[in-house]
């Protein structure tokens, strides 16, 4: 999805070790490569610390679906994961304790994920209203994707999703935070207008 992919930068790639380079015999090219490698290692460490230190809330009316998302989060280092089976349960958790990232299904009753996103964005408590929301849906039709964007989600993923993709999207939101907008008709992260949309699905 262009409006989502624009928030994602490639994960750092570590430079391959160079044989026979010791001390002062390293030339300028090798020095630059080693510096890039060190920078990449630092960025990866920061990502791992950030993901493990965040608090997640998985919202889905299917217990099996919740378990799959929880397992995927655990695989990328998440340690603090709450869950809720509907909108009421999600709001209860959000008001009871701090949450950094909400992984939210859309196809729920009696309130859909898109409807719940609108409620969250209009919450009087800033820590609730400005929480990161990543929608995970089994449907990827254009009207639904755009409705989710206009409700205020940060990311839209299509089921089934891999642990790798979830990790990349969480890191992308952390690395490239968007200004939070508040207007009469929209509350949420800054939207990117005029771009073609197409949801991201499972990979690898």
From TrEMBL:
Cited Gene3D superfamilies: 3.40.50.2300
Biological process (GO), any one: phosphorelay signal transduction system
This protein's UniProt keywords: Phosphoprotein
Domain Response regulatory: 55-174
Keyword Nucleotide-binding: no
Segments of this protein annotated with the region Disordered: 1-42, 184-204
Biased composition (Basic and acidic residues): 21-32, 184-195
Domain of life: Bacteria
Signal peptide (from-to): none
4-aspartylphosphate: modified positions: 105
Pfam families per record: Response_reg
Descriptive protein name: Response regulator receiver domain-containing protein
């Amino acid at each position: 999805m262009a409006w989502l992919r624009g928030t994602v930068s490639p994960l750092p790639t570590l430079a391959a070790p160079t044989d026979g380079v010791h001390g002062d015999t390293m030339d300028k090219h090798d020095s630059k490569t080693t510096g890039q490698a060190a920078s990449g290692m630092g960025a990866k460490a920061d990502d791992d610390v950030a993901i493990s230190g965040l608090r997640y809330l998985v919202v889905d009316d299917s217990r099996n679906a919740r378990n799959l998302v929880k397992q995927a989060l655990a695989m990328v280092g998440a340690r603090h994961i709450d869950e809720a089976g509907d909108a009421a349960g999600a709001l209860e958790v959000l008001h009871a304790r701090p949450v950094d990232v909400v992984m939210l299904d859309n196809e729920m009753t009696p309130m859909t994920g898109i409807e719940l996103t609108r409620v969250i964005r209009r919450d009087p408590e800033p820590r609730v209203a400005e929480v990161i929301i990543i929608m995970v849906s089994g449907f990827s039709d254009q009207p639904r994707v755009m409705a989710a964007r206009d409700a205020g989600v940060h990311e839209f993923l299509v089921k089934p999703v891999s642990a790798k993709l979830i990790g990349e999207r969480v890191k992308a939101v952390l690395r490239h935070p968007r200004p939070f907008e508040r207007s009469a008709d929209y509350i949420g992260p800054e939207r990117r207008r005029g771009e073609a949309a197409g949801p991201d699905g499972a990979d690898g």
